Amino acid sequence: MVINNTLSYRSAFTLIIKRDLTIAFRHRDDILNPIIFFIIVVTLFPLGIGPESSTLSRIAPGIIWVAALLSTLLSLDRLFKSDHNDGSLEQMLLSPHPVFILMLAKIVAHWLVTGLPLIFIAPVLAVLLHLNENSYGALMLTLLLGTPVLSLLGAIGVALTVGIQKGGVLLSLLVLPLYIPVLIFATSAIDTSAMNLSYSGQLAIIAALFFGSLTLAPFAVSAALKVSTN
Amino acid sequence: MWKWLHPYANPEVAYHFTGKILSWFSALTIIILSTGLVWALLFAPADYQQGDSFRIFYIHVPAASLSMGIYVGMAIAAFSSLVWQLKLADASAAAMAPVGAAFTVIALLTGSAWGKPMWGTWWIWDARLTSELILLFLYLGVIALHNAFEDKNLAGKAAGILTLVGVINIPIIKYSVEWWNTLHQGSTVSKLGKPSMTIDMLWPFIFCFLGFALLVATIICIRFRTEILARNSIRPWVRDLVISENK
Amino acid sequence: MSITNSIPSLISANNLTCIREDRILFESLDIEINAGDIVQIEGPNGVGKTSLLRILAGLSEPFEGKVYFDNKLINRNRELFHQNLLYLGHLPGVKGEMSAQENLAFNLALHGLDFETAEQTLQEVNLLGFEDALASHLSAGQHRRIALARLWQSKAPIWILDEPFTAIDKLGVKKLEKLFLQHVKQGGCVILTTHQDLSLPDEQVKKIVLTYQF
Description:
The complex is a heterotrimer of chains A (230), B (247) and C (214). With 230 residues, chain A is an all-alpha fold. In chain A, 81% of the residues lie in helices and 0% in strands. Chain A is elongated. Chain C folds into 2 domains: 1-84 and 156-214, P-loop containing nucleotide triphosphate hydrolases (Rossmann fold), CATH 3.40.50; 90-155. The radius of gyration of chain C is 17 Å and the shape is globular. In chain C, β7 (158-162), α7 (170-185) and β8 form a beta-alpha-beta unit. The A-C interface holds A 1-5, 7, 11-12, 15, 19, 22-23, 26-27, 82, 85-88, 90-98, 229-230 and C 35, 57-61, 70, 78-80, 82-85, 87, 89-98, 102, 106-107, 109-112, 134, 155-157, 186-188.
């Protein structure tokens, strides 16, 4: 009585996305808190550096991107932690569907509730920081391509630390160095756009990072989760 | 293809085998490294521009390239551990990580010590120094993750995955940092230029490089043996070994 | 080795060794479980019952040894094995943010089962009337019932259950035991741990006893 059916990858993918979004929207604090954190961190900089608009506009890209990085890092915790604690992660690993598809779905859902809102709020914060007028397009585009990379790479870090009691600080130690290339190319794209030059080169590199991490990260995540749940 | 490796995959055999090569490594290290250092620090000619401060080069460059090399070595070990389930590869990766981190620190310290007479400041966001600093972060991440797990087997696997993710990222990070550096060229005074070496500088350099490489091999060998013992402490052969050595 | 047997066992393991934190839990364990078996794993706390179940389910890797399903290595035939496996661990895998019915429907769909019948299935575990209540408002016993409800829908022959009777009342236990008997009669097998005595006939239950290793 051995069962051997063929399963649909797409239905497994949408199943997880639907579930994670349902949970997220019934638990709105988890969505709102990283966004509020993002806003607060950005407003701290003018207070620490001084309100001079020429200084602020020069460092605005860096501030927004570092804040986005940190707020993504903060929100990563909820990606696998609760599923690990209540045993649902175990059930996902035991499902007949390929684990990397399920994990990719979880990462996409996570990005939809944490990465996507940043893109809409960033322009408002950019106004506060006197970002150069030519740079808004670059800011949005780099966030659109870059924040998924943050979610994908971050997921590897969470997957590795989810079984560890005090994994929070360790997570930032593992993940932040991996974020450096995104930070460099994103801020430089915004800087270049301020000078009215073409920044398609930087954008292409971020896109390459996106596709690279999109294809490799889900596999690393599933391998890491198998170790963490062992 | 892996048949010939099989006998060495037994921890006991590996322990005794590394014991034998260890004595060779340590003897060679003492001879070559001391020759190289004495030659480089006392007898090699001073650089016509940088004077005696140039001699840091004989330590800095080997340390920097070994720090990268050890990470690649760790990644190879991690890969073979994950793919072929070689438990000894885990032990060797665990043995390498702190050595690599130490050499990264040496490279950073000597780099900034070299920077002081050159640029008049201890730290400069030079592309190579910056990527060395990030490499240190990667090492610290691997070591911290390894320590966070109670179970050595799991620790090895988790650290292995992180090492592989890191090794894919190293070229990207290196490239991005170099790119970032050229972009902000205005803030840097000058790069650590590769001095053109004359033949009487090259030979002591080769000796120093080989000497440090052998030193790394020796330390890793010692640590590897300790790792094997720690991972097999419940095996009878380890108990016999301890008893016979305590006699 | 069991490979050459004429009738393949459903799940078998040979030479299993499990080491946790430098302690040997069990060594060189051979297990063969056939269709129709109810296997109870016994032993004191911390002896490795859960570890053994997790190794059989492929969640943990043994230090040494292999696990076969239908004479194929489980980690080489993951998709096939998981279609034929139902594992319930200590943790029920129930999300507080979703209702009882949503939880069950998700669990069924995740394992490729028909999730339309989630509502009727809840009746089997006495949760009718609670189907729309958020799981965070339900008790631990009710969480376990939500998890166990999958048993009534599952077509997988191999059931691995870690303490399935925890927080379940007497009537519920009776019902489960009846279900186990029905399942093995249809050619399945049940591997479980429990602190309670099973009220199943002795000849039905095989026992694997683990003891401390020093």
